[in-house]
Specification:
The protein has about 600 residues and is an alpha+beta fold. The chain has helices spanning about 1-60, 65-80, 110-115, 160-195, 200-210, 225-235, 240-260, 280-285, 290, 295-300, 305-315, 360-395, 400-435, 445-455, 460-465, 480-500, 545-550, 555-565; strands at about 85, 95, 120-130, 135-145, 145-155, 265-270, 275, 320-325, 330-340, 345-355, 440-445, 465-470, 475-480, 505-515, 515-525, 570-575, 580-590. Among the domains are: about 245-355, PAS domain (Beta-Lactamase), CATH 3.30.450.20; about 360-435, Helix Hairpins; about 440-590, Heat Shock Protein 90 (2-Layer Sandwich), CATH 3.30.565. The longest helix has about 60 residues, at about 1-60.
Length: about 600
């Protein structure tokens, strides 16, 4: 009896220490993670607004026009919902969206401003003497010729975020405390049930050690202890059951390997394949049954993989590399080779893990292209504006005809830049509303939305003597944001009109196929070459760059269409024959 009591308290206090320690660590880490997540989310929002405000305000900073800069700063602050401040390198505030810059202190001693003046992104969290509340600040430098000419700071109050964080932390800690308390109580009863049969089992082990194999345990113990007693008593008769268990485990392992999306290939020391899952066979273009027992050189036609296997066998350590499998569509793989060991630790061969990173590579390329394209698209009109302004400053303003011509060109470039920024804002809003699920969806007549889009494009089509038509198989009412979806159709019609010759027809067909509404925009324009089709919905991607710019396009129209369709849980596809025309099909779910 004393032994049992000592054991139960040893087990119970061990459980208790683990429970308290685990929940303390989890609670501390969770609170820390939640707060950091709140700050990171708010910081990312401020960074986006700061960089976007830089694009809007930079024309008024260089050259400095304080009146226009202040007006633009306040307008952008209203639109973005953040406090925007523009500070010169010496710390003087020249514009602020909420306060009069003339009465504001010199900001050169602000941590975030000082960092931005050095060319870095500065951030700080402190009470604002102007706003009388705790604020989060983020400042970015405005650069020209590798020098900081100004600092743009975006700020947002922390009051709402702190309140929400405190409520979340209180709920989490309360739940953690109650859970820990319940676990502590439960662990006591678990410890009590575990210790009861321990003495009987210890006595049975002593008898078994003396060779008394006929002794049997009592089997009335509950749960696992009872199962253990039955298993020990029937040990001699369970050989077949063990074999079945081993076979079942082998089948489970095979099922796991088959369901893994990564390709797995096991090779012995003679470089012969001893196991391969279906994912690896699909990646390497071979059959699992045909590869087992054959050398990897015969099965896998990839010299880099052969070298990787040899290197792993020679160096006896993990080897990793990225390779490309050539084909109609090249596949990029990340291949990891690790040593295969048996239960004694002896090396039996190598295990290859093949991860298809083709999609990741494509996303990297799209990201790089987008950064390059957006820089080029914004820099081009700014460069043109700067050039004509310099020409006027150098004496061109004395010639009225030249002045009018240059101002007209500057106006077109500003309009183009404004269109690019407006489309970028639309894309940003679409992504935000789609992520937050805040689209204003309501039952709307598809026919009415299409008719409105046709009316919006009627004037443009009449200028080119193009006929707009619509055909409806049935009246459909879809859950949608009617104005957004109308904009998607207008973008498609606008493209169709721009790239169609005079006198052609453009048609919209709408109907239902099973549980989907299908809207097709069909034109008889110049068409799109096949190699461009996979990328036409990327931002700033143009098939004919010169013609697209001449027609006033920003390169974002089809990207906006794609985001609108995806925000409605739909998809969009395109078919095109160069010289004959294109068909864009939108598929939207129909709710009964």
């Amino acid at each position: 009896m004393p032994f049992r009591k000592r054991l139960i308290w040893q087990i119970y206090f061990s459980y208790l220490i683990v429970i308290i320690g685990s929940f303390s660590i989890i609670t501390w880490q969770a609170v820390k993670t939640i707060r950091q997540s709140f700050l990171n989310q708010l910081m990312n929002e401020l960074k986006s607004k700061a960089y976007l405000s830089e694009m809007v305000l930079k024309p008024f900073i260089d050259p400095l026009n304080e009146t226009e800069l202040l007006n633009a700063c306040r307008e952008f602050g209203i639109r973005s919902g953040a406090r925007i401040t523009v500070v010169l390198p010496r710390g003087r505030v020249v514009a602020d969206s909420l306060s009069d810059p003339g009465i504001m202190d010199n900001h050169s001693d602000r941590v975030e401003i000082a960092a931005a003046i050095r060319g870095e992104i500065g951030a700080a969290e402190r009470p604002s003497p102007t706003m009388q509340e705790k604020m989060l600040y983020l400042a970015v430098p405005v650069r020209k010729n590798q020098e900081t000419i100004a600092v743009i700071r975006a700020a947002s109050p922390m009051t709402a975020a702190d309140d929400a964080l405190r409520q979340l932390i209180f709920k989490f800690t309360t739940l953690a405390f109650l859970t820990a308390l319940g676990a502590a109580i439960l662990s006591y009863f678990v410890s009590l049930r575990i210790t009861r049969p321990v003495e009987d089992i210890a006595q049975w082990v002593r008898l078994l050690a003396r060779g008394d194999l006929g002794i049997r345990l009592r089997t009335f113990y509950p749960n696992e202890m009872g199962a253990l007693a039955v298993a020990v008593n029937d040990m001699a008769g369970q050989l077949k059951s063990r074999i079945d268990t081993i076979l079942m485990q082998r089948n489970e392992m095979a099922a796991v390997l088959s369901s893994i999306t990564e390709g797995i290939v096991a090779v012995d020391r003679e470089e012969k394949i001893i196991r391969m899952n279906n994912a690896a066979a699909a990646i390497l273009g071979c059959s699992v049954a045909a590869t087992l027992g054959r050398s990897i050189q015969e099965t896998v036609r990839s010299t880099p993989i052969h070298k990787l296997v040899k290197e792993a066998l020679e160096k006896h350590k993990l080897v990793e590399m990225q390779i490309t499998l050539p084909g109609e569509h090249d596949r990029h793989l990340n291949v990891r080779a690790t040593m295969l060991k048996d239960q004694t630790g002896s090396e039996r061969g190598v295990v290859l893990a093949l991860t298809d990173i083709t999609a990741i590579k494509r996303l990297e390329r799209v990201r790089k292209d987008f950064v390059a394209n957006v820089s080029h698209e914004i820099k081009t009109p700014i460069t043109a504006i700067k050039g004509f302004v310099e020409t006027l400053q150098e004496g061109g303003i004395d010639d009225p005809s030249q002045t009018a011509k240059f101002l007209s060109i500057i106006e077109r470039q500003v309009t183009r830049l404004e269109a690019i920024i407006e489309d970028l804002l639309i894309l940003s809003r679409l992504e935000q509303e789609s992520d937050q699920g805040s689209l204003r969806l309501q039952k709307s007549s598809l026919k009415e939305v299409i008719s409105s889009a046709l009316q919006a494009c009627e004037a443009m089509s009449m200028e080119k003597d193009i006929t707009l038509k619509a055909a409806f198989q049935e009246e459909l009412f879809l859950s949608m944001d009617a104005s957004l979806f109308e904009q998607a159709l207008v973008n498609l019609l606008d493209n169709a009109i721009k790239y169609s010759d005079r006198g052609k027809d453009i048609r919209i067909d709408a109907g239902r196929i099973e549980n989907e509404a299908v809207i097709s925009v069909i034109d008889e324009g110049c068409g799109i070459p096949r190699e461009h089709l996979p990328r036409i919905f990327e931002r700033f991607y143009r098939v004919d760059k010169a013609r697209s710019r001449e027609s006033g396009g920003t390169g974002l129209g089809l990207a906006i269409v794609k985001h609108i369709v995806q925000a409605h849980s739909g998809r969009i596809s395109v078919e095109s024959i160069p010289g004959k025309g294109s068909t864009f099909r939108i598929h939207l779910p129909v709710s009964e």
